[in-house]
Every structure is written in structure tokens, then in C-alpha cells.
Amino acid sequence: MKRLGLIICTLFIAFPAYTAGWEPAGLIWRPPLPPPAPIISGSRVSDQIKQGCGKTNVQFADTALMRGSFVLPDQWQAQTRKLVIAATVADDLDLALDFLNTALATEKLSVVQTNVLMNQKVLTALLFGDFSRASIILEELDFKTNIPNGLWADRLFWRALIAVNQANKDTQKWQNSIQPTIEEAARLEPDSFILRVWRLIAWLEAKRWRQGNSCAASARVFSELVLDVSEASACPLMIGHVSHAMDRHFRARGDGSTPPATDLAAWRRFAAGILATVSQDQATSKAAEDSLIQASRISCAPTLGNGIGILRLNRKGG
Amino acid sequence: MSDESTQTSSIDLSITFFCTILILFVFIEFNFSRTPDEVPDFSIGQKETQVTVIPPTWTTLRSRNSFAVLDQDKLSILELGSLAVGIIDETKALSTKQEYQMLTLGKVPAPNTFSLTFSFDPTALPLDWTRDRILLGPDAECMQQQLKRLTVFVSANTASVTPLLKYAAHCGYQLRLEVMRSVEKGATVTRLFALRKKSFSARTIFK
């Protein structure tokens, strides 16, 4: 009897330990499901947190030459440089373009130098806010010339930017024209910060979450875009700037504690959660996770919330 | 013996009873006096809602500015075209001891890297460098120009910038103030325009 009692006691102690994590489904106990595969790259997040506010390869300049994306073997004549500088200083668009046209008329400009100056004309018009003039100059450019990738990328991006100015939230335009153009530009200039931010914006505007095989698959793609942006700098200040710039583009605050009400808001909240984790803002990351899980009526929102939760859990364990 | 053990048990029980009451009292007392924490509005952006925030500086395009100098209630708009002409042709650049411009070409291969130092008397901007002079007030006319962003050099001893702010609000200008050190009448200030690779560093952009 004593032996039987001992066996029964042992079973009572050992059985729960053995079935730890098992969940009852009626009378049947089922072993726990394997944890879902993380949808956010924990290793990239960890690397970025370690990097912190340190310098990276990502370039912030708005032209290929300033980014140093190619080496220009040709020398600039001093007078040509002065004309381009004068165009940079002038606060009248016609005057600035006259200076650049005079520079273009300089003898002994190489093909690459000519294209650099043509790009500068397009950018100057954009900096003055004259998108229609920029569009005209862009149309005059020869898109078949063999020029460095960086110059190509700049032209493609500006073409997309002009289209954005006219798009009026037309999702079809974003899907068929603008986003592919930005993706092509980013393929040519992967280290451009501006292109990385606009890839993120374009993905959201084109509503690409509808085209993934599953929420998890779409979330993986999107999270990589977000981490491409934060790779530029995991500094909270920069991340705050980017967040604010996106809020201005979408004309809405993206983060907060209330559950998102639309698909777009949910995906933006997901981005905010990832960026908050990278900048080690645990409270905002948790708030993003909780608000997404609560938004059960928005498709993919709970998956996105769980993704942030798994990321934070893996970081605590790791 | 049993009387002693009974007595000891009673004392133990009393002590336990009173300790329990004390713990409950402390627990309840602190709970009643505790106010619930406010739930913050989580954001990876601005945290301080009570502080006026200068808008972030990062934008896709670095929009062009006009420049002006404020002298009490007079706003002198800088004629950057004259500065530009002086860059191209040094013989046309102002070059006195007090008022001058000096260009230095930058080192990187981009053709438009440079620094331009220019010096002027803020109370008497040279005519060559003046596009317009506006007397600030309710009847002041708005400038006829393309750019809506205006950077104004303001001396630290300026009594009030309210007339300038009202003018900017009325004309729809996005205003930025650059404070200069206070100068005596007739003295000059030196400013610098520059574009270099450092202009695009994270530290410069994300302030």
C-alpha cells in the first residue's frame, strides 16, 4: 500500500511536469504547437541596436555625386563650378537655370559631367517647388545614355516624386508606376537613405499587403523595408524624424495606444513597433504590440502584433 | 506545562493577529492613497506635449530659401542674384573692408560644393545686395517672389520680432530666424553659406 501510495504521488508530481505546456482540448491533452517563426529579423534588430548612433554605409545626400556613389574621373573647370555654385545660391529659378545652361555650354565637358549638370537642373526645379518645370526638363533627358547607376537612380526617383505630386492617392498609379520606379531606383542605389524611406512609403501607398500569400509573408517583406530605414541610424532622434516625415506624408499620426482602425494604420503601427524596438523604446513597442493584437477586426493586425511580441521576447531571452 | 504552552500559544496567536491587522492596514492605507498612473500616449516621435517643438528638419527635398535682414522694423530682402553674379565674376563682387564676399571651392567631386563668406552692416545692407526694403506694419506689401520660405537674420538685441511674425503670417511665409550677435551701429557681421558633404551627415540633418 505504501508502495502504491508512493507511485501515485510520484505520478501526480511527474505528470504535470511531463505535460508542461500541454493544453487540454476536452479530455485530450495536446502538446503545444511549435512557436511561430519570427516575422521580424531578430539578428538585424540586434545588430542595429549594437550599432546605435554610429556611422553606417547609408548615405543621406540627394544627389549621386554627393553620396559618392561613383567616381568621376574628369576634372571640373573652375568657371563651370562657379556657375553651378551660383545656381545653388540663387533664389530665382530662371536665374539658376540660366547659370546651369551656361555651365552646360562649356566646352570639354565629358558625357558624365553633362549628365551631372542635367540632373542638377532637374533637382534645382524641384527645390524651387516647380514640379512641372522639373518634369519638362526630365522629359528632355536621354534615358538611353550609358551613365553611372547613381545618376540613373536619381532620375528615376525624381520621376516617381513628380508622379507622387500628381497621384492624389491613386492606388493603381502607385502599384503600376510609382512603386516599381522607386524599387528600380533603389536597386541601382541601395545605400540611399531617401530611397529607403520612399520604398517604405511606396509599399504602403500601393497597399502591397494585399498581394502577399499570407499576413506573415507580407509582414516579413515589410519588416525588411523598415529595418533598411533604421539601418541608416538606430538613433532615436533620426527614427523620430522619419516617423514624423511619414506622418506628414500620410497626414495622420501613425502611432499611439488606440487600436488601429484601418489596414494602413495597422501596418504603420507595425512599422512604429519595429522602430521603437530598434530605438529601445520598450513602452512604445509594447503599446504597438498590444494595440495591434486588440485590433482583431483588421486583417493581419494580430499577426503583426504577435510578430512584435516574438521579437521582444527573443530579445529578452537572447 | 500545558498551562504554560497554552499561555504561549495565546500570546503567539495575539501577536499574529495584530501583525495581520497591521499588514492589512498598511496595505489598504497605501492602496487608498495611490492614484492611478496616467497612461501615456506612446509615440516614437515627440514625447513632451507641453513643449513647442521645432518641426524636424529632414525632408526629401531641401527647399530653397530667400534671405533677409531685420533691423528694428525694417526688413531688407537679400538679393542673392547679386551674390551669385559676384561668385561667377569676382570683379562684380563687393569687396570693401566692411562689405565683401569670399568664395572657397569645396574639395569633393560634386561641382557645387563651396563655402561663401559674406560680411555686411545689418543696419545698412549694401544697395547691391538689397532686393527690397519693407517697413513692417499692417500695410506692408508681400513680396512678389516664388519662394515662400524666408530665413531672417536677426540681431540678438532686437526689441521685438512680433511685427515680423505678423508679416510672415499675413503673407504665408514659412519663417526661420537666424540670430546674430548684437552689433553696434556701423559694425559688421559675417555669415557663411556652405554646401559640403558634411551638410548631408546624420548629425547635421537630424537635429
Question: What's a quick, concise take on this entry?
Answer:
The complex is a heterodimer of chains A (318) and B (207). Chain A has 318 residues and is mainly alpha-helical.
Topology (SSEs and partners):
The complex is a heterodimer of chains A (318) and B (207).
Chain A: H1 2-18, E1 23-25, E2 28-30, H2 42-51, H3 64-67, H4 78-89, H5 93-104, H6 111-127, H7 131-140, H8 149-167, H9 171-188, H10 193-205, H11 215-230, H12 236-250, H13 263-278, H14 282-294, H15 301-317
Antiparallel strand pairs in A: 1-2
Helix pairs in contact in A: 4-5, 5-6, 6-7, 6-8, 7-8, 8-9, 9-10, 10-11, 11-13, 13-14, 13-15, 14-15
Chain B: H1 2-32, E1 66-71, E2 74-78, H2 80-88, E3 100-105, E4 114-120, E5 130-135, E6 149-155, H3 162-171, E7 174-180, E8 189-195, H4 202-205
Parallel strand pairs in B: 1-6, 6-7
Antiparallel strand pairs in B: 1-2, 2-5, 3-4, 4-8
Q: Would you write up a description of this structure?
A:
The complex is a heterodimer of chains A (318) and B (207). In chain A, 66% of the residues lie in helices and 2% in strands. Chain A has 15 helices and 2 strands. Chain A has helices at 2-18, 42-51, 64-67, 78-89, 93-104, 111-127, 131-140, 149-167, 171-188, 193-205, 215-230, 236-250, 263-278, 282-294, 301-317, and strands spanning 23-25, 28-30. Chain A is elongated and about 110 Å long. The mean pLDDT of chain A is 88. Chain B has 4 helices and 8 strands, in the order H-E-E-H-E-E-E-E-H-E-E-H. In chain B, the strands form 2 sheets. Chain B has a 5-stranded mixed β-sheet with strand order 5-2-1-6-7, with helices on one face. Chain B has a 3-stranded antiparallel β-sheet with strand order 3-4-8, with helices on one face. The N and C termini of chain B lie far apart (82 Å). With 207 residues, chain B is of the alpha/beta class. The interface between A and B is large, with 73 and 50 residues.
The helix-strand sequence of chain B is HEEHEEEEHEEH
Largest interface: A-B, 73 and 50 residues
Cross-sheet strand order for the largest sheet of chain A: 1-2
The number of distinct β-strands of chain B equals 8
Instruction: Please state the average pLDDT score of chain B.
Output: 81
Oligomeric description of these chains? heterodimer
Number of strands of chain A: 2
Average of the residue pLDDT scores of chain A: 88
Inertia-based shape of chain B = elongated
Number of helices of chain A: 15
